[in-house]
Amino acid sequence: MGNSALLVMDVQREIVDLADDGSGYLPRLRRAIDGARAADIPVIYVVIALRPGRPDVSTRNKALTAVVRAGLHIEGEPGSEIHPDIAPLPDETVVTKRRGSAFSGSDLDLVLRARDIDNLVLTGIATSGVVLHTACHANDRDLGLTVLADACIDLDPEVHTLLTEKLFPQWAEVVAVEEWLKAVAPR
């Protein structure tokens, strides 16, 4: 499994409000976070934040243009904060990104290299957004990948299923939180 880190991506108040389907997503994610901490696996939080006035958003970017129209992901706004149910500890790293992938417009690569991390465990909202984009980037960087399928959620359950059952297994180990916790639990 190499030197692993758990990435908790885009689990911000306004995103949770849009995506949480009442299936127990946040408590399940919390179990993964607590399990990583107990196993001394670093937990790295990734948030999307666009600058006020949006100088970093091109009109050619359909996804971000839609986000801008909805008034979401504005740096410093209360809705862009990490959801309090899974908040980071004071010594945990929070990386800010400006695009879909956790690597895009962020210093994530620097954080991983500084800690000699070569395997990522992906969680977050949305499966078809940050999880997919980050998996593509990580795969291209030859990083080991694990996707916690039930610690990812998407506005479209069919897309979530397609990605976690068909695409991600080509690049990553795809497991449920409980299965992963058994594998990383301190012995």
Folded structure, characterized:
This protein starts with a strand and ends with a helix. The model has no long low-confidence stretch (mean pLDDT 89). The protein is 37% helix and 20% strand. It is built from seven helices and six strands, in the order E-H-H-E-H-E-H-E-H-E-H-E-H. It is α/β, with parallel strands linked by helices and 187 residues long. Strand 4 (119-125), helix 5 and strand 5 form a beta-alpha-beta unit. It is globular, with a radius of gyration of 15 Å. The chain has a six-stranded parallel sheet with strand order 3-2-1-4-5-6, with helices on both faces. Helix 2 runs parallel beside helix 7 (177-184). The chain has a single domain (4-184), classed as 3-Layer(aba) Sandwich (Rossmann fold), CATH 3.40.50.850. The chain has helices at 13-19, 25-38, 62-70, 108-114, 127-140, 157-167, 177-184, and strands spanning 4-9, 43-48, 93-97, 119-125, 144-153, 173-175. Keywords: Hydrolase. Residues 4-179 form the Isochorismatase-like domain. GO terms for molecular function: hydrolase activity.
Short description:
Keywords: Hydrolase. The chain is an alpha/beta fold and 187 residues long.
Question: Could you outline the blueprint of secondary structure elements for this entry?
Answer:
Layout: E1 4-9, H1 13-19, H2 25-38, E2 43-48, H3 62-70, E3 93-97, H4 108-114, E4 119-125, H5 127-140, E5 144-153, H6 157-167, E6 173-175, H7 177-184
Parallel strand pairs: 1-2, 1-4, 2-3, 4-5, 5-6
Helix pairs in contact: 2-7
